[in-house]
Amino acid sequence: MTAISLARSGARTPGGARKVVARAVVGVLLAAYGLVSVYPFLWMVSAAFKDQIEVVRGGHLIPDNPTFQTLADTWSELHFFDFFLNSLLVTGYTVVLTLVVYAAAGYAFAVLRFPGRGFLQKLFISLLFVPGITVMLPIVLLENKLGILGTHWGLVLPFVNGGAPLSILLMTGAFLAVPGELRDSARVDGASELRIFTRVYLPLTQPALITVALLTAIPTWNEFLLTRVSLNDPSTYTLPLGLQTLSAENVPHYNNLMAGALIVVIPVILLFLSLQRYFVNGLVGAVKG
Predict the structure, then answer these.
(1) Is the CB of residue 246 less than 8 Å from the CB of residue 63?
(2) Are 86 and 238 in contact (CB under 8 A)?
């Protein structure tokens, strides 16, 4: 009996039929869950291309008279361009500092040998289980004493510090996956530790670096709580705070609010889609390491 006939006969057995039915039910449930999950996003996109009257009236997801005027008004008249630049500045500085600091830390934990290495690594990773809200007040008090409360650096430094546990975990795993023979060969050729780090290890861990950059950029771009506590000057507001000012109006314009939300999420979605392949490879490499 051939393999095909065996498979067909197995599908006709009660056990095979139950598996087919179970898979079909799971598929239907997942499809329904996906539709329910994606509907709010589709409604947001739809409302961003409607006027206020059509949004309040309700109706179909597809606008009756789609217009880009809502997006244009939200971008220009409500100063979203300034908020966008502030978010870009804070996110950019945070990502660069995170990569520089924690790539070096991951290399040290994975390759170098020094007293207390294992304890320090476990200590950093244990911070993953500390809720960020519990250190909010100490951060604000410290920033006030340092004179950076209300500035963008008052956001960048806590964001970089908060990314330590996961960044160190990923980068350490990625560096452990690099064969140690490469380092030994470079040392024989007279390369310094810094040169080995920058010329040998960093190029081989590019997916992990991109993964850390993504995992840092997305929450930094969307952060609201610390930003709301720290910033008081509207000229320093980031996009989430700019979006909050729209919802705080006496008569909220829901089309402008949804257009602002779309402006906030589009850069994140485009960034993730463009780097998705590296993101998956970085996670897989870190786990293997």
Answers:
(1) no
(2) yes
